[in-house]
User: Fold this.
Amino acid sequence: DVKVTQSSRYLVKRTGEKVFLECVQDMDHENMFWYRQDPGLGLRLIYFSYDVKMKEKGDIPEGYSVSREKKERFSLILESASTNQTSMYLCASNRPLGGDSYEQFFGPGTRLTVL
Amino acid sequence: AQSVAQPEDQVNVAEGNPLTVKCTYSVSGNPYLFWYVQYPNRGLQFLLKYITGDNLVKGSYGFEAEFNKSQTSFHLKKPSALVSDSALYFCAVKTSYDKVIFGPGTSLSVIP
Assistant:
């Protein structure tokens, strides 16, 4: 089974803190994604990566950065956390188009609260 | 612009009745369509996908979905709803560069 893990289920941080959210997948997937989920807005793509050291902006990249130094690990960084970044953060991975499986596999999510 | 719409925020259905959760999409080229489910306090789980072939696709937990190209729809269906089907359902479409766009979600409540 594909397994996507996220470093924390719950996080509470203060405004202005630097926050690291870690995601690891064990299926050798090339693509990895970070979303945030907010009620009524569905999942909005923050950043994605289709290879090591490669990254692409999603729909809402402002206030975030990412790092992919190893294929299995994709980190989301909030340089200076703000209250409007309070949300559920979901990591996902999949194989690229042309592979035998297109669906994404999701981690359990990290609920981040910024005070 | 490429997008996914789920016109109903909430769907209520009695246990044992058929259920439908609606999804329409707008995407250039051939669509790759997905349904995911999120149970309370759990991550998203893949239900089913349409890539090519038969317009009716079957997935997990007895769910199926019908792809309708002319109506650009991909509605999720189940012949007989269970209380345990109560969850948040997301429709998604895969675009070029492997980007996946999600709809806003539909909350399904199955009433005993």
